[in-house]
């Protein structure tokens, strides 16, 4: 067995020692969105430090543990904290948990994140369903020898985000009467936020929002043939003509304040998974 697959199996085996629950949906909780895990019933929480091969999660607003249990009757596993490239992780490390979740039984992945709104129509607190992304991290989790048991050497990326499940998330926004955009996420390496000129460039490239995560996870999901839905919360407005200062605390606070909208959308996806 190749190194990565062995690590995946060992992490999954360590999780199985802690709970019999076989999760069907995996949820990655972004900055300020970890509170959704508190709604999981019958929860088993496992700090990443108690699992093999996993680094500590160091990002602000990321608790760093896996939570397994039921959300609206659906068996789920939630990552309360993710691994970013700017924490010094390789793209492969930052995406490994996607394969672990699949090994545990997950068949759908829901990814959430905090992002800067580049589209001038976007306001702080608005959710954005990812329609597509642009990988400007210049890193890819699939670099290296491909393990054909995990997925194909050259995965198709023409539609990385599941349209039907995305529609269910948008329908929740319509039902609950809040604005939800559908747009393109630019994945940046970070940890600096972007300069005015960079935001202007990103807009010209066709991006609606920018963040420092999600892309490696979505690539791994595509590689592993896991349908994926991703939702950003716009935490700072960064159209170049009205750019102010941004801080990590401001981002976490804005994501937390708007988290009820993302929670409603995640629940709608769970209901649509059936
Ligand atoms: O994408 P998540 O993990 O939500 O976090 C976002 O917020 C942090 C910056 O404030 C970066 O980590 C960025 O990617
Ligand atoms: O403006 C941003 N840029 C990159 N990542 C982010 N995460 C939250 N806001 C931002």
TrEMBL record:
Q: What EC number is given for this enzyme?
A: 2.4.2.1
Write one Gene Ontology MF term.
Answer: purine-nucleoside phosphorylase activity
Per the record, the coiled-coil ranges are: none
Tell me the superkingdom of the source: Bacteria
Check the record and name the InterPro entries matching this protein.
Nucleoside_phosphorylase_d (IPR000845), Nucleoside_phosphorylase_sf (IPR035994), Pur_Nuc_Pase_Ino/Guo-sp (IPR011270), Purine_phosphorylase (IPR011268)
The biological pathway it contributes to is: Purine metabolism; purine nucleoside salvage
Q: Could you tell me the keywords of this UniProt record?
A: Glycosyltransferase, Transferase
Annotated residues for binding of phosphate: 31, 62, 82-84, 114, 213
| Start and end residues of each Nucleoside phosphorylase domain | 24-271
Q: Which residues bind a purine D-ribonucleoside?
A: 194, 236
One GO cellular-component annotation of the UniProt record comes to: cytoplasm
Q: Which GO terms describe its biological process?
A: nucleoside metabolic process
As for family, the record states:
Belongs to the PNP/MTAP phosphorylase family.
Function, please?
A: The purine nucleoside phosphorylases catalyze the phosphorolytic breakdown of the N-glycosidic bond in the beta-(deoxy)ribonucleoside molecules, with the formation of the corresponding free purine bases and pentose-1-phosphate.
Name of this protein: Purine nucleoside phosphorylase
